[in-house]
Write a structure and sequence with these properties.
The protein is mainly alpha-helical and 157 residues long. It has 4 helices and no strands.
Length: 157
């Protein structure tokens, strides 16, 4: 239930431990049923009351139902593990998507800063007394424009 409500609360190791316990229980269950079948086969050679044969048959039948339940539990655990992995993958994808968006927003401003950081004499706007403010305003405008575009497109949700 905790995995379905919030997959972050359950550690993957805990789910794998439960899965290995179920696998061990399934192996033990198989051995028990095999032993009961051998016992039933041996009892057919000896004169035993019909009640003992009925009990052995019932035990083997119950063991088969138990194996079916264990198989269902293994399938359920496999599905829960896949759900948990899918949730963690989606979370990682969202984080990487956000990093890509942020790098796309700041990349043009970094390019402009890199170009104006070069030591050339004939770079436009540098000769003006207010050139610094023009370049900074342009970089802020580019960043704000990218931010608005990505927000408008719903990429931050």
């Amino acid at each position: 239930d905790a995995i379905e409500e919030n997959p972050r609360e359950v550690q993957p190791e805990a789910l794998l431990a439960i899965r290995s316990d179920v696998a061990r229980l399934t192996m033990l269950w198989h051995e028990q049923i095999h032993g009961l079948r051998d016992l039933k086969r041996c009892h057919s050679f000896f004169p035993v009351s019909s009640g003992a044969h009925t009990q052995l048959r019932d035990l083997i039948s119950d063991g088969g139902r138990g194996l079916e339940l264990l198989a269902q539990m293994e399938n359920r655990l496999r599905d829960l593990r896949q759900h948990q992995q899918q949730f963690l993958q989606e979370s990682t994808n969202r984080r990487l998507n956000m990093l890509a968006i942020l790098s796309a927003i700041y990349m043009p401003a970094t390019l402009i800063a890199g170009i104006y950081g070069m030591n050339f004499e004939n770079i436009p706007v540098t000769q003006l007394s207010y050139g610094y403010y023009i370049v900074m305003s342009f970089m802020a405008l580019v960043v704000a424009g990218h931010f608005w575009y990505f927000y408008w497109r719903g990429w931050f949700k």
